[in-house]
Amino acid sequence: MALPLRDDEATRRFPWVTVLLIIVNVVVFLFVQPSAYQNPPRQSDHSFEAVRRSNERAVFAYKWGTVPCEIASGSERITQPADCPRRDGAPLPAHKAVYLTLLTSMFIHASLLHIGGNMLFLWVFGNNVEDRLGRLGFLVFYLVGGVVADLGYVASKLHSGGPAFGASGAIAAAMGAYLVFHPRGKVLTALYAGTVQLVYLPAAVVLGLFFVTQFFTPDKGVAWQAHAVGMGFGFVAALALTRLPSVRRRAEAHDADAALRTWAAF
Question: What's the confidence (pLDDT) of residue 217?
């Protein structure tokens, strides 16, 4: 297992958008999502209160998460469109904006571990991408990347009736862009193979392994298709964005700063 902790690429401006995205995700998780996400009831608990909280959690997920068959049909699952499986007893919301969930789903997380891991990845890789694209440019890139990643997942699961959510597709887009902007960067990574070791690895190695391993993930609860599509989109989009004069100027300023730091070290 490999967990990135930080990189060695300095930013020229404080990453306000990255910080704001982290704050919004945390606030939604702690204060908007039902309490069953932060403190889930035990599976063995069949009390009225435990069942109520579990149902509340499910309704929230179906209301704000991306359900592939709903996107494919344009209709809510509760109306039983032909593209969706028959209702399986899960509580479903009566009204929802089907296509809006392509945005709202990227601000919902299933557990503390889920949001903790995603926000760590966002901080490690997002701040440098924001530094290169600018604040508004990064915000647009992040949101578009998340939507594209969601659509990639939908395309691979057209008749799935389960909700998908999490910021990982948008973050994967930022990781793809990081690979273009800072391929020689070094990432402090925690490696676990019986014991934990902290080592600096080239960003190309860390991100390349992340992309490849998405195709071999054994966890059916992980939307690896969204990760792969998001990262691919981020990489291709970043290649195109490097042609923009504003992005080139920020790259030149970053390289000048790096050269100055190297000279000062001597």
Answer: 67
